[in-house]
């Protein structure tokens, strides 16, 4: 913006000089860079850790495997005897849960403490009703789930 002075014929500049505006622009840019530099490494580290954890979990789950070999239910004791085998290439620790179902109702549940590679384990699972299905699942690898509805009932 220019203002004319009629007496001298000179123009006077009013506003911010180019030097001041450049300094202000540089100060804003440095402030933004300072904020970003303290935040960006933490964000990158979190994203890297999350990606590594997911990759490790996928590798672990690819190597996990188990199968229910047989189930027999004793009516007098309300006990299901479940034979399960680790068919994978990794040990399973505090990770495997057995659930007895009757008409979609959970009638018994048990967590297995340890099942090493190749081990066969026979365990008792208390069930108030004759189970229609026994499900074995892994909390670490939810996509790993096996079930059987072949249950031998005895008295």
Distance from N terminus to C terminus (CA atoms, Å) equals: 103 Å
Structural domain tally: 2
Model regions low in confidence, pLDDT < 50 over at least 5 residues: none
How many separate helices?
Answer: 1
How many beta-strand runs? 10
Evaluate the radius of gyration: 35 Å
> What is the CATH T-level topology of the largest domain?
Immunoglobulin-like
Strand content: 35-45%
Structural class: alpha+beta
Question: What is the global morphology?
Answer: rod-shaped
Query: What average pLDDT do the residues reach?
Result: 86
Main sheet: which strands, in order across? Answer: 7-4-3-10
| SSE series | EEHEEEEEEEE
Fourth-level CATH superfamily of the largest domain: Macroglobulin (MG2) domain
What would CATH call the class of the largest domain?
Mainly Beta
Task: Report the CATH architecture of the largest domain.
Answer: Sandwich
Major sheet characteristics: 4 strands, mixed
Helix content range of the residues, please? 25-40%
If you had to describe this structure to a student in words, what would you say it looks like?
The chain is an alpha+beta fold. It has one helix at 18-63; strands at residues 2-4, 11-13, 66-74, 79-86, 92-102, 105-115, 120-126, 133-138, 145-148, 152-154. The protein has 2 domains: 2-61, no CATH class; 65-154, Macroglobulin (MG2) domain (Immunoglobulin-like, Sandwich), CATH 2.60.40.1930. Strands 7-4-3-10 form a 4-stranded mixed β-sheet, with no helix packed on it. A 4-stranded antiparallel β-sheet has the order 6-5-8-9, with no helix packed on it. Strand 5 (92-102) and strand 6 form a beta hairpin. The relative contact order is 0.16.
């Amino acid at each position: 913006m220019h203002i004319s002075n009629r007496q001298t014929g000179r123009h006077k500049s009013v506003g911010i000089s180019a030097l001041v505006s450049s300094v202000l622009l540089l100060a804003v840019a440095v402030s933004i860079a300072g904020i970003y530099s303290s935040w960006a490494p933490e964000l990158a580290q979190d994203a890297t850790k999350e990606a590594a954890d997911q990759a490790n979990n996928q590798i672990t789950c690819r190597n996990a495997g188990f199968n229910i070999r047989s189930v027999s239910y004793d009516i007098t004791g309300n006990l299901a005897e479940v034979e399960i085998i680790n068919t994978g290439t990794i040990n399973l620790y505090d990770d495997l849960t057995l659930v007895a179902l009757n008409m979609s109702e959970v009638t018994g549940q048990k967590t297995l403490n340890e099942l090493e590679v190749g081990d066969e384990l026979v365990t008792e699972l208390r069930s108030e009703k004759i189970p229609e299905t026994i499900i074995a699942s892994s909390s670490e690898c939810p996509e790993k789930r096996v079930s059987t509805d072949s249950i031998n009932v005895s008295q």
